[in-house]
UniProtKB/TrEMBL annotation, chain A:
<dbReference type="InterPro" id="IPR001810">
    <property type="entry name" value="F-box_dom"/>
</dbReference>
<dbReference type="InterPro" id="IPR011043">
    <property type="entry name" value="Gal_Oxase/kelch_b-propeller"/>
</dbReference>
<dbReference type="InterPro" id="IPR036047">
    <property type="entry name" value="F-box-like_dom_sf"/>
</dbReference>
<dbReference type="Pfam" id="PF00646">
    <property type="entry name" value="F-box"/>
</dbReference>
<protein>
    <recommendedName>
        <fullName>F-box domain-containing protein</fullName>
    </recommendedName>
</protein>
<dbReference type="InterPro" id="IPR050796">
    <property type="entry name" value="SCF_F-box_component"/>
</dbReference>
<dbReference type="InterPro" id="IPR013187">
    <property type="entry name" value="F-box-assoc_dom_typ3"/>
</dbReference>
<dbReference type="Pfam" id="PF08268">
    <property type="entry name" value="FBA_3"/>
</dbReference>
<feature type="domain" description="F-box">
    <location>
        <begin position="5"/>
        <end position="51"/>
    </location>
</feature>
From TrEMBL, chain B:
<dbReference type="Pfam" id="PF03931">
    <property type="entry name" value="Skp1_POZ"/>
</dbReference>
<comment type="subunit">
    <text>Part of a SCF (SKP1-cullin-F-box) protein ligase complex.</text>
</comment>
<dbReference type="InterPro" id="IPR036296">
    <property type="entry name" value="SKP1-like_dim_sf"/>
</dbReference>
<dbReference type="GO" id="GO:0009867">
    <property type="term" value="P:jasmonic acid mediated signaling pathway"/>
</dbReference>
<comment type="similarity">
    <text>Belongs to the SKP1 family.</text>
</comment>
<dbReference type="InterPro" id="IPR016897">
    <property type="entry name" value="SKP1"/>
</dbReference>
<dbReference type="GO" id="GO:0097602">
    <property type="term" value="F:cullin family protein binding"/>
</dbReference>
<protein>
    <recommendedName>
        <fullName>SKP1-like protein</fullName>
    </recommendedName>
</protein>
<dbReference type="InterPro" id="IPR016072">
    <property type="entry name" value="Skp1_comp_dimer"/>
</dbReference>
């Protein structure tokens, strides 16, 4: 027995990282309790980023999941199951926030496994279903707003996740308020932007190529044409 | 032919086409540093034989697709990683040192597949890791995500 203890070579930390980075999140959450060094490794930011990189580049799409929503129920499906199985395996995603607050939740967007949800426009939540953790925000309330739309994206330059919130009305006294939330700083900051009078945003922003994009039109008449605006 | 020497002073001749799958040796050859024997002070002969076996089999990776030998190669890979932890770790360290990307990928994935869904107790026993966490620290980790420690897939066996 003593011999076998000596025989297992001790791998340098970068090679342990290479191996553990190929494991599913659920397994890794338990492996934090293997030893002090595994706890430090698995909890480190570098490891988390490496794990994300390896999962995202997996050629078999082993960790890629599709998010499906029907009414207020969220479901997910492994992309591999969709591509390779004759019957798609779909499982229900239980979101602790949507279960607690019975309002109509919709998906703002999803980046790197994080999902941003909004409930009845005022409530907001960022959720990581892989580790079942979430962050909620106090309801956003003003006396003047008519509509609020959100966008969710990843800021590669600052390695930060951001929520863009546009609150606006387009009545007799049009008002406009755009704020960007930084997950890293846990704070909102205002963006100076004066849109043309009467501009409306439609739906949630779409995160493409590092920027959040909205389709919008000017004036109450949709037929006048659409533009895309983007916020990075 | 390229000559490699293990740390226990054994020499092996390998075809250049096989050995250049190692980025490290490929660079040495390109820089003209591989004129005589290449010493590999980090690799013993037992491990080097395994690595050469892999390199020789994967010599014509591109051609395998054309000649329908892909399945054959896949079967070889499956057989190849069928080894104990000790040997697997030695090959991983050698593949890392020699910078052989495909071999590294194969062995790390095999190690991960063996660890997937294993219980914490089983992992410690398989890899001979001593638990140096206090009971409180361990409980704190369990309390952080109790659901992760549950499930029918969790495997407490050590093979």
């Amino acid at each position: 027995m003593e011999d076998s203890i000596l025989k297992i070579p001790i791998l340098p930390v970068e090679l342990v990282t290479e191996i553990l980075s190929r494991l599913p999140v659920k397994t890794l959450l338990t492996f934090r309790s293997v030893s002090k060094s595994w706890l430090a490794l698995i909890s480190s930011l570098d490891f988390i980023k490496n794990h994300l990189r390896i999962s995202a580049n997996n050629k078999d799409y082993a960790q890629h999941r599709l998010l499906l929503r029907y009414k207020c129920i969220l479901k997910d499906c492994y992309l591999r199951s969709l591509l390779c199985n004759s019957v798609m395996e779909v499982s229900r995603l239980d979101c602790p926030v949507t279960d607690q607050h019975k309002t109509f939740w919709s998906v703002v967007g999803s980046v790197n496994g994080l999902i941003c949800l909004t409930g009845g426009e005022k409530a907001l939540c960022i959720w990581n279903p892989s580790i079942r953790k979430y962050k909620t925000f106090p309801d956003f309330i003003t006396d003047w707003m008519v509509r609020i739309v959100y966008g969710f994206g990843y800021d590669e330059f600052n390695d930060d996740y951001k929520v863009v919130r546009c609150a606006y009305n387009y009545g007799d006294r049009p008002r406009f308020d755009i704020k960007v939330y930084s997950l890293k700083d846990d704070s909102w900051r205002s963006i100076r932007y004066r849109p043309p009078n009467g501009m409306r945003f439609w739906g949630s922003g779409n995160f493409v190529n590092g920027k959040v994009h909205w389709a919008n039109n000017i004036g109450p008449d949709r037929d006048k044409g659409w533009n895309i605006i983007c916020i990075n | 032919m390229v000559k490699l020497k293990s740390n226990d002073d054994k020499e092996f001749e390998v075809e250049e086409a096989a050995v250049i799958q190692s980025e490290m040796i490929k660079n040495m050859i390109e820089d003209g540093c591989a004129t005589s024997v290449i010493p590999l002070p980090n690799i013993d002969s037992k491990t080097l034989i395994k690595v050469i076996e892999y390199l020789n089999k994967h010599i014509n990776m591109g051609k395998a697709a054309e000649t329908g030998e892909e399945d054959d190669l896949k079967e070889f890979d499956e057989q190849f990683v069928n080894m104990g932890w000790e040997e697997l770790f030695d090959v991983i360290m050698a593949a890392n040192y020699l910078n052989i990307h495909e071999l590294m990928e194969l062995c790390c994935q095999s190690a991960a597949d063996r660890l997937k869904n294993k219980s914490v107790r089983a992992v410690r026993e398989m890899l001979k890791i001593t638990n140096d966490l206090t009971e409180e620290e361990e409980q704190e980790i369990i309390n952080d995500a109790p659901w992760a420690f549950e499930g029918p897939e969790i495997d407490d066996t050590v093979n």
